[in-house]
TrEMBL record:
Ranges annotated as biased composition (Basic and acidic residues): 22-39, 54-69
Name recorded for this polypeptide: Ferritin-like domain-containing protein
InterPro entries attached to this UniProt entry: DUF455, Ferritin-like_SF, UCP012318
PANTHER family: 3-OXOACYL-[ACYL-CARRIER-PROTEIN] SYNTHASE-LIKE PROTEIN, SI:CH73-314G15.3
Organism: Jannaschia donghaensis
Renumbered residue ranges of the record's region Disordered: 22-75
CDD domains assigned to the protein according to its UniProt record, in alphabetical order: Ferritin_like
One Pfam short name: DUF455
């Protein structure tokens, strides 16, 4: 049976259960990598991903104002924090497979697909790390309501690869670099070392996802001879609702190829 990378992506997207989704994601990532290393490479192919990925019945999806507040000074607050991160990570697994399938008809170097498969594999590990921490704390993913609006950025940018790169890795995942150190501190103060280690792994690996975003965004701008900074500002203003909020992690953003003149101007409404 011939399969394609785009079909593999759709299989992950249409798997509902979190642990099952991440297991299939890791398996497909390993299969893809082996085919790239040893050949013959699995063809990218084309496929039509679902508009929304399959998700488990729980967590119940709620408006952010109805999601429990994260009071980090309490064990319940820390569970809520881990639950929110688990939800972000599961969403990220789908986002990376979605970019592969949805834009599979755009001619791109194979390295584009290698990067997003690798990012999807990282997110799968991140979801499992968070789910493990929740279970060790006597909870589980699905026990609390979760943010309903997570897939909105994908829907907003479903027709435009450059907009997807600008909003998802270069705005949303970059935001993760800004807030994760504070989160690590919360768990360090509570002496919850497994969560500290898990979040440190996430923090270290997220830099590369932002870097893949800026790399391919710059690549596509270069292909059409456009100024990346100007295009970035236009696309974020069009597709991302709200302004960017400092403080920024300027060091990690720089590691990921995001210079200050990309994000500072977006802290103000125009
Ligand atoms: Fe992640
Ligand atoms: Fe990520």
């Amino acid at each position: 049976m011939t399969t394609t990378l785009a079909q593999m992506a759709v299989e992950v997207l249409t798997t509902a259960d979190g642990r099952a989704k991440t297991a299939l994601s890791r398996e497909h990532a390993a299969t893809w990598r082996a085919s790239r290393d040893d050949g013959p490479a699995i063809p990218v192919g084309t496929a039509k991903p679902p508009m929304k990925p399959a998700r488990p019945d729980r967590p119940e999806l709620a408006h952010p104002r109805d999601v429990p507040r994260r009071k980090p000074g309490t064990p319940e607050g820390r569970i809520a924090l881990l639950h929110a991160v688990a939800h972000i990570e599961l969403n990220a697994v789908d986002l990376h497979w979605d970019i592969i399938a949805r834009f599979s008809d755009v001619p791109l170097p194979m390295g584009f697909f290698d990067d997003w498969v690798s990012a999807a594999e990282d997110e799968s590990k991140h979801f499992n790390l968070m789910a493990d921490c929740l279970e060790a704390a006597g909870s589980h993913y699905g026990a609390l309501p979760a943010h309903a609006g997570m897939w909105r950025a994908a829907e907003e940018t479903a027709d435009d690869l450059m907009a997807r790169l600008a909003v998802v890795p270069m705005v949303l995942e970059a935001r993760g670099l800004d807030v994760t150190p504070g989160m690590i501190e919360v768990f360090r103060r509570a002496k919850e070392t497994a969560a500290v280690e898990a979040l440190e792994t996430i923090y270290a690996e997220e830099v590369s996802h932002v870097a893949y975003g800026s790399k391919w965004f710059n690549f596509l701008c270069g292909r059409t001879d456009q100024d990346p900074k100007v295009v970035f500002h236009d696309l974020v203003r069009k597709h991302f609702h709200g302004v960017l909020k400092p403080p920024f992690n300027e060091e990690k953003r720089a590691d990921a190829g995001l210079p200050p003149d990309f994000y500072w101007p977006l802290t103000e409404d125009v």
